[in-house]
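User: quick one - fold this with PMV bound?
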Amino acid sequence: MNHWYSPGLPEYLDRKQDLETTANQANTHVLMCQPTVMPSAFAPGKCILFGEHAVVFGHPAVAVAIDQGVKVSVEESDKWKLEGSSFEPSRHPHISHIIENIFQYSGPPLDIVVNSSLFSAAGMGSSAALSNAFGAAMYAYLNPGEKLDTVRLAKMAHSAEANAQKGRASPTDTATSALGGCVVVSGTAVPGTRHVFDTSLETPEGSREWAINVVDIPPEIGDAWLVIGYSGTGSPTGRMVSKVAKLISEVPDKMEEMETIANITRAGLVALSAGNLEGLGMAMDACHDSLRKLEVSNKKLDRMVSAARSHSLGAKLTGAGGGGCIVALTHEPTRVSEAIEVAGGMSLLTRLGAEGARFL
Ligand code: PMV
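Assistant: Sure. Structure tokens for the protein plus PMV:
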């Protein structure tokens, strides 16, 4: 039995049972009749506005879904294929976990087509978006005409991430991609947010629990853009988390920075909920300064942040750091995009809080 289905997840077990039953029924069904439309789904990537690294120590993190993401379609085929080549399950742990452990699929081989508009391994949640989009496409294939349950999808994708990452995965990326909008992940209740679901995971270090909350984005925020600047190198999340842990063990005073980030996160959330773009930008600037003190920024990220700030309300690195991306909040997206590219980065433009995973 897969560790993810171990005790501590009774609600999901019930849901999984439902899902497997419908999957098995549908397997019989699809063997008899060919679907006429290729089931396909889209799931967005994400960008962390506040709380990266502090979330590892139990503080809240705030992420928004972005316009870019991953589209997946599945079609019956004479043999298993991914992107036109032979599908090798061991090379694609998220996809194979969803096929084998979630759906326990035993129907005809599938041709899986993936299109991504995200930079991969860059802190944009590409593997979470892939898991959500593939999970949703499989669900559509096996349950034609049924609605998508995004909470169930978020839990399914989280289990795929955990399975692929040796049992360690925060639900931030998968929940934000599934639900869309603005998601606050925390160990405890966060004032001013709406609770959606709780989730837990058995990790090698013990049981972990999270509350997944959402914040409604007021219309004033819709006037602004996020410009994401990719440094060109990947963001090694595990290595950066270990680096911060080592820094804190060597310099215990650095732990204060986690409290500072938590305060900035709370102030940023208040500004976001009130539609106060200036306040939101100031909190982003402050968050970057704290992340620098935790030594997770680098020269390229700092250069892109400085370049973006001249036309932004605020700018910071986003995600684990050490590479990956920055994010800037602005009314002048073209200017910021140019500034980031002059500083040597690649840019993407998005509104804040895109719609979550959906069938196409
Ligand atoms: O770069 P990402 O999207 O993997 O973000 C990592 C965020 C951390 O707080 C550094 C780690 C985590 O698991 O939350």
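One thing worth noting: The pocket of PMV is lined by residues 48, 52-53, 55-56, 123, 170, 172-173, 235, 237, 240-241, 319-320, 324 (CB under 6 Å).
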